[in-house]
């Protein structure tokens, strides 16, 4: 606890000084001169301490105060105490600011603090990555001088920040960014920039998906509807007419059914949780069943279909999903191989891997299509695929199933020569 300077003590000391000097001076009858001399001494003593304070505060810049006497000692101590308090507060403030900055750095969004004149006060690292700001070089620069997109400039000048602004980044075309201005403090703004590329892509995929499904269903529905409208209500079609329309309507209905089944299969796979890798899948059994199915599809013996199955080779995963992947690849080979073609299905061990492959000598696929085959609704030849009852979802399902089983579909194909679709899984004893 500091004591305040006592006025009374000071007055007492000054009075004593002048009294003493007057007494001493009166010995030589020079009391006034002696008092003047004392006043001069007192003034010099105070000036000396003023110089000490000045040197301490402006030149030495040390924390420890200079030596002082009486009242000056108290003043030095007071300044020293206030300085220490200020330093401690400063340290605390610095720690708080650092914590806030660390927090802003940890945010998954780009943050830029702007003044009322749109100049940059501070930005985090993500702002440097997403909108290409440089820190600290860009401090004090106007944001609209650095983000030069015309739409951004208009948005900034309109100052209607209720709606966010969505832009494609000027330095990276594939990046879609959302800009949002949030007012704070005294006419200051917080600019928050979010990378919404993935969100936009997902939105686009969803839109495309709905458009594709509608498109796929529209054609068969129009055909069936057209025939039904041709028929008079309450009147059965004549034999010739019935012969003509029945197979077409049946065909179109089967097409819609196949599409709905594939859609359900896809959504079931997408909705199910992670694959339980404890379940052993008896793949040889499953493939024998699919072999019978393939042979019955090939009733007219148009193709030669061979299965080479390692009877001991099993894997762990989801039986339903793997069945769907095997089945899609086998039926595709049958669908896209002209009559008389050869199809070889193999399930063999290669080192510690279980490898499944379907080879055909069918029409083959041009390289430009190969990498897009697993996209939903992608077909090389729309008309040909539809004619064979294809939904365009088969390979998308295979890709999805395989990614859930930590595998990948490999496609090798040569137009006119044939195709090979294969993938590998960890053989059971390795899991
Ligand atoms: P779809 O239901 O149309 O068969 P898929 O996703 O199963 O759909 O296959 C996508 C496209 O890949 C098919 O439309 C076809 O053009 C091509 N394709 C798939 N398998 C083969 C194959 N074995 N030989 C030639 N083309 C194939």
Strand order of the largest sheet: 2-1-5-4-3
What oligomeric state do the depicted chains represent? single chain
Quickly give the structural class. Answer: alpha+beta
CATH topology description of the largest domain: Heat Shock Protein 90
Largest sheet data: 5 strands, antiparallel
Would you tell me the overall average pLDDT? 89
CATH superfamily (homologous) name of the largest domain: Histidine kinase-like ATPase, C-terminal domain
Based on the structure given, which CATH architecture of the largest domain is correct? 2-Layer Sandwich
Q: Give the radius of gyration.
A: 44 Å
Shape: elongated
CATH class of the largest domain: Alpha Beta
Total count of helical runs of at least 4 residues? 13
Distance between the termini: 74 Å
**Bound small molecules, deduplicated:** adenosine-5'-diphosphate
- Number of domains in the coordinates? 4
Organism: Alkalimonas mucilaginosa
Function: Member of the two-component regulatory system PhoR/PhoB involved in the phosphate regulon genes expression. PhoR may function as a membrane-associated protein kinase that phosphorylates PhoB in response to environmental signals.
EC number: 2.7.13.3
Keywords: ATP-binding, Cell membrane, Kinase, Membrane, Nucleotide-binding, Phosphate transport, Phosphoprotein, Transferase, Transmembrane, Transmembrane helix, Transport, Two-component regulatory system
Provide an overview of this structure.
The chain is an alpha+beta fold. The protein folds into four domains: 88 residues; 89 residues, PAS domain (Beta-Lactamase), CATH 3.30.450.20; 63 residues, Helix Hairpins; 151 residues, 2-Layer Sandwich (Heat Shock Protein 90), CATH 3.30.565. It contains 13 helices and twelve strands. The strands form three sheets. Strands 2-1-5-4-3 form a five-stranded antiparallel beta sheet, sandwiched between helices. Helix 7 packs antiparallel against helix 8 and helix 9 runs parallel beside helix 10. The chain is elongated, with a radius of gyration of 44 Å. It starts with 6 loop residues before the first helix and ends in a 5-residue tail after the last strand. Bound molecules: adenosine-5'-diphosphate. Adenosine-5'-diphosphate binds next to helix 10 and helix 13.
